[in-house]
Write a structure and sequence with these properties.
The complex is a heterodimer of chains A (393) and B (405).
Chain A: H1 2-16, H2 20-40, E1 49-55, H3 60-71, E2 75-81, H4 84-92, E3 98-102, H5 106-111, E4 116-123, H6 127-157, H7 161-168, E5 173-178, H8 185-208, H9 232-261, H10 270-292, H11 300-315, H12 327-333, H13 338-350, H14 355-385
Chain B: H1 2-13, H2 18-38, E1 47-53, H3 58-68, E2 73-79, H4 82-91, E3 96-100, H5 104-109, E4 116-121, H6 125-147, E5 155-162, H7 169-199, H8 203-209, H9 214-241, H10 249-277, H11 280-291, H12 294-297, H13 309-317, H14 319-330, H15 334-373, H16 388-404
Parallel strand pairs in B: 1-2, 1-3
Antiparallel strand pairs in B: 3-4
Classes of the chains: A alpha/beta (393), B alpha/beta (405).
Chain lengths: 393, 405
């Protein structure tokens, strides 16, 4: 029994390497993307974003503020302009991505204890730069304001400056960033993307290979072979095992090599990692096995799933939280293994979550696996019995 | 010639091609609308946070109430200890938790400045940014009112996102994602249209219906799809843009030109992939590898200037990078329009290059297949091409049966 199963597994594994399209998806894509994606973010954070200051005050205080902005790590003051139009033109040329407007009479107003407002403008199309520039400029401006306020408190309440500082901010906060404390963009993006890459390449790869279908027409020379005409459960489970073992290698490769190479945190413990690999891969393989029975042509799965990659990534609670999505969309996302796999993987590998932390998501993946296994077997059985005139499957 | 052109268009586009219409219309438009719906709440709000309330004083209650009343935050749990909240963060139930330490009120009143630790998961970049900023604002506001309520803050700041005043996420991301969708879709559709005659062995059939003119065949194959993808793209872009500042007619024309050039470049690239590989599966795979992650390299999320040199070169080659630049420049109004001409010129050059390369490689490929197919013993009917494999199989079966008899 086992030898029959292993024979199917081995034959399927050999077949990956004899079909260029399958090699591209099941071997090359997984390796190439693992290097391709993180390379863009190898610098991890955005520093020294080019910005400008529009100084309408021309005072000692405004120059101090400009110097403070120049000294921050996040931005680099490229120019000091005298009017806003110059700054807007520079922003349109993308010489700068934001600017701070120091209003006229700022110093005078501060000395007269009148409030003053500093406007910060960022480019509306770049989400990351908006945050970086906004934080850098407002920190500088608020620091100048804080110094003035402390002076005012000390003078009016007749207290020492240390006490005045405590009165200004009696309950300071200290923000501790857990798990990605450098604010690295690659730590944020790449681990989620890697899981989606595994899922997408595996699903498309299975569809390209025709899933568990017997007597595959594209295998011109071997379609009448013993393995190709093996009974359905052996064919289904044997081929699934080939994909499972192949992708276990990928998970190991990512964990041991890619994570090391690109310096991603590796907090995953062995047991949760193994359980994750089992339930995630079985869920994706069975999902792929179901879908492979739907397409008439091998390429159709590629055309569909390549188009769906972006929504699938966003449905996995990546970047945009699921509680802000419409409920029908959240319901739809439950069909996809990545919806549970991406948060589970992040919990295990990035945050060092134990088995109890990820259990709810792994249960859901396991339920998906069982449902897709039953569905996949039924669809394969039906497909084996159907004669199709069109398509190359 | 016109008759041949129309006949070929009819054969290519209306020959029961469900997959073609799916990837040409349903998927790009459907996915674009889907992405817009995803960001329909527009801004980040209700970020789940937890509170570890070690102090049960008036000040701690005041802080808790202030955090609860913030629209950006949603206090989900009052944890008994830090470990409970920490595990909730690992499970993904919480984004952040605030610890209100022992003796907070007493120490604050004695001006001992008790620090309030805020623990936030950096793994969720966006929600982390919003949550920590809001918590800081809320706590600072409460703190300021303790001793210096009569002192106004001398400096106030206001951050404006130019062209996207409300910091709408549809503006930040959806415009770029819609462009990325059509960038990929144009390549995939071009690959499909260029390669299905090769896959189905119908080059000779199409060539004959195009009255033996390669030019007619190329026009019939690629011009309708280019126009359809472009119109869809413009429609989806206009629909997405309705949430942002209104665009002037000239700005819309400028963006449309850039979008057209992007579509032409992508169609040319798709043709070139088929021309070079000759197989639909491989050409689709290549398009997917290049076009799929293009958005990550185009600079809208992570700026191109912060990428390594080699990646910057790759980003420069992608038409998406340039169309996103034109689109973002239009957010700045007239000033942006003047600057976008240079990019349009660059994109025009890119479109011409890819169109010529695609046409040349496809011409060679079609020509080769025509001469190759003519050597095969295949009789091609207008609508139903004969299945060679099936015929060969049936013949061999008959031969074997005859042998047995």
């Amino acid at each position: 029994m086992i030898s029959r199963l292993l024979k199917v597994t081995l034959t399927e594994w050999k077949l990956f390497f004899s079909d260029p399209a399958a090699v591209l998806l099941l071997v090359v894509a997984g390796i190439l993307y693992a290097f391709y994606y993180p390379t863009a973010y190898v610098n991890q954070t955005v520093v020294r974003v080019p910005v400008a200051v529009v100084d309408l005050d021309h005072s000692a205080k405004s120059r101090e503020l400009t110097r403070m902005a120049s000294a921050t790590q996040q931005v680099e003051v490229k120019a000091v302009f005298n009017d806003m139009l110059e700054a807007e033109t520079a922003m349109a040329r993308e010489d700068i991505f934001g600017f701070m407007v120091i209003p006229e009479n700022m110093e005078k107003d501060l000395l007269n204890k009148k409030p003053t407002k500093i406007n910060i403008f960022t480019h509306g199309a770049y989400v990351m730069l908006h945050g970086t520039i906004g934080t850098a400029f407002s920190t500088c401006a608020l620091t100048v304001g804080a110094v003035s306020k402390v002076k005012a408190i000390a003078l009016s309440k007749k207290v020492p400056s240390a006490k005045a500082m405590a009165m200004r901010d009696p309950i300071p906060i200290s923000i501790q960033t857990m798990f990605n404390n450098t604010g690295s963009y690659s730590n944020y993006v790449v681990p989620s993307v890697l899981v989606v890459i595994l899922q997408q390449s595996l699903i498309i790869g299975i569809c390209i290979m025709g899933g568990a279908r017997g007597h595959r027409r594209f295998r011109r020379n071997e379609r009448y072979s013993e393995v190709e005409n093996e009974s359905m459960p052996y064919r289904y489970l044997g081929r699934s095992l080939a994909y499972f073992l192949h992708y276990c290698c990928f998970i190991l490769f990512y964990h041991c090599f890619i994570y090391n190479l690109f310096d991603f945190p590796r907090r995953g413990e062995l047991l949760p990692m193994m359980l994750f690999a089992v339930v995630f891969l079985t869920s994706v393989i069975n999902f792929g096995m179901c879908l492979s029975q739907v397409f008439l042509h091998r390429e159709s799965s590629m055309q569909l799933f390549l188009n769906l990659s972006i929504p699938i990534l966003f449905l996995a609670n990546f970047s945009w939280p699921s509680y802000l999505m419409p409920s029908w969309m959240v319901g739809l996302s439950y069909v996809l293994p990545s919806t549970f796999a991406v948060p589970a993987w992040l919990s295990i590998e990035q945050m060092g979550g134990d088995i109890y932390d990820v259990a709810p998501k792994l249960y859901l993946l396991a339920i998906q696996s069982v449902i897709y296994l039953v569905l996949g077997m039924i669809l394969t059985h039906l497909r084996d019995k159907t004669h199709f005139k069109t398509g190359d499957m | 010639m016109l008759k041949g052109l129309l006949k070929t268009i009819g054969k290519i586009y209306f020959g029961h091609k469900i997959v073609l219409w799916m990837i040409l219309t349903i998927l790009p438009v459907g996915v674009s609308v889907f992405m817009l719906e995803m960001f329909s709440s527009e801004i980040v709000q209700h970020v789940p946070i937890g509170i570890v309330k070690q102090d049960d004083s008036e000040l701690a209650n005041k802080l808790e109430m202030a955090l609860r009343s913030s629209p950006v935050l949603d206090v989900k749990v009052l944890c008994h200890d830090m470990s409970e909240c920490e595990h909730a963060v690992i499970r993904g139930d919480l984004q952040t938790f605030v610890v209100l330490p022992y003796d907070l009120d007493r120490r604050a009143l004695r001006l001992e400045t008790p620090v309030i630790p805020v623990y936030s998961s950096g793994q969720n970049y966006l929600t982390n940014m919003f949550a920590t900023k809001e918590i800081r604002a809320v706590i600072t506001d409460v703190g300021e009112k303790l001793f210096t309520a009569s002192f106004e803050n001398p400096v106030k700041t206001e951050i404006h996102s130019v062209g996207n005043i409300e910091g709408n996420y549809q503006g930040f991301l959806a415009l770029g994602l819609v462009s990325a969708m059509f960038h990929l879709a144009a390549m995939l559709v071009a690959v499909y249209i260029a390669s299905f005659p090769l896959r189905d062995r119908r080059v000779r059939e199409f060539y004959q219906s195009a009255e033996r003119s390669w030019l007619t065949l190329a026009v019939a194959s690629f011009v309708p799809m280019t126009i359809i993808v472009w119109l869809e793209y413009m429609g989806c872009y206009a629909y997405t843009h309705r949430m942002l500042m209104p665009m002037g007619f000239e700005e819309f024309v400028m963006v449309s030109v850039a979008q057209f050039l992007m579509v032409v470049s992508c169609v040319g690239a798709g043709m070139a992939f088929v021309g070079i590989t000759g197989v639909m599966r491989i050409a689709t795979g290549v398009s997917g590898v290049i076009g799929g992650p293009a958005f990550a390299f185009a600079g809208q999320t992570f700026p191109v200037m912060a990428m390594p040199f080699a990646v910057r070169c790759f980003a420069f080659v992608l038409p998406l990078t340039h169309v996103l630049r034109v689109q973002s420049m239009m957010l700045l109004g007239d000033v942006g329009m003047a600057e976008s001409w240079e990019i349009i010129k660059l994109m025009a050059g890119m479109a011409v290059f890819w169109a010529l390369l695609g046409s040349f490689t496809m011409y060679l490929r079609w020509k080769y297949r025509l001469s190759h197919d003519s050597k095969l013993p295949v009789v091609v009917d207008d609508e139903n091409p004969i299945d060679i494999e099936k015929t060969v199989h049936e013949t061999s079966m008959r031969h074997q049966e005859a042998k047995h008899d």
